[in-house]
Amino acid sequence: MSKPWYYTIGYPVKVLYEGAWRNGIICNGYRHEDGIINTMTEVGPVGFGAARREEFLKPNLPDDNPWIPTKEKFPKDHEYARVFMTVQYPGVTTTVKGAWAYGVFQSGNGRTIKRPVLAWKYLRYPKPYKEES
Prior knowledge:
Number of strands: 10
Order of helices and strands: EEEEHEEEEEE
Largest sheet: 5 strands, antiparallel
Number of helices: 1
Radius of gyration: 21 Å
Helix content: under 10%
């Protein structure tokens, strides 16, 4: 069985230290295997008990599916893709799930979005569960 991310040496994290979120990595240290989480940040080493990790520690992985402004790029004209869209309605800008269907953005019910779409990103589903053998 694999270890949780907060016990993975070298894993990038954000650490709450002295009231600010700091970039850091999980590092090995005294009692690491016993639940003491040790990190190295730009201000030096920071460690705390496993009971406080939900409060003081979060993953810091780069977003491999960033928002793409429509000023820069659209999906390919000939493709169909499930997407998230940031749509500008009168008085509100909101994110909706829909599709890019052969040159137009569509809402979840298949209707063409007639409002300005400011940005989009591909809707990615996680890989299906697979039992370890």
